[in-house]
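Example record used in the benchmark description.
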Amino acid sequence: MHGSKRRTQGGFSMFEMMVVAAIIGIVAALAVPSWRVMQANNRLRDATGDIADALLVARARAIASGHRFVVYFNTGLNGGADVCGNLLVDVQGNAVPILVLDDGLPGNPNYNCCVDAGEPFQTLPAAQGVQWGVDFAGAAAPGDDDPSASFATGSSFTSPANATTEWVAFRPDGVPVGFADTGGACAPGETGTGGGAVYVNNDQRDAAVVLAPLGGVKVHRFERSGAVWE
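Model output (structure tokens):
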């Protein structure tokens, strides 16, 4: 009798085990959505970091090499192609969201803002669950003048004539400039025409990467509860 009593006191009853299992199930059910949201926000943060890095690296390489560098954002505005109709793809031929092109030295035959054969370029892969544009923000991010009011579609970069584009060039001095789609050699604008931003979201949060007219880069996230850009 004494031995049986000790075993009962030292173990768990079936009812207690069922209660523990129920609690674990409830905690898991609450934790999974939170974990998914955290993962989605982490991917959005990584995507905005990649966009900012693409702009900063292009600017730094332009200054260091004396070449012109072009950053293309494949938001769908230009059919997934550069200004000459070349598709924005990686070396395997897969479409990419971002392409950074080394357009070479001024005066060379392929100094045209286009992805010509043999020109070096770098691409970034798509981020899972992240897409261009905004879902919640009702205005452009701070520092983005957005003359065409096009931020919601993903890009507020413009040509020198203020037509919405999805690209920007960095001159050899590092200053960003807009350029026009002329069907051939690009027509870059003057200092001050390269400011703009790209916008991305993960269906729960909006983010923006803003490029200042002289080359500075800032990342903003939209706070839904206060309806303001952070």
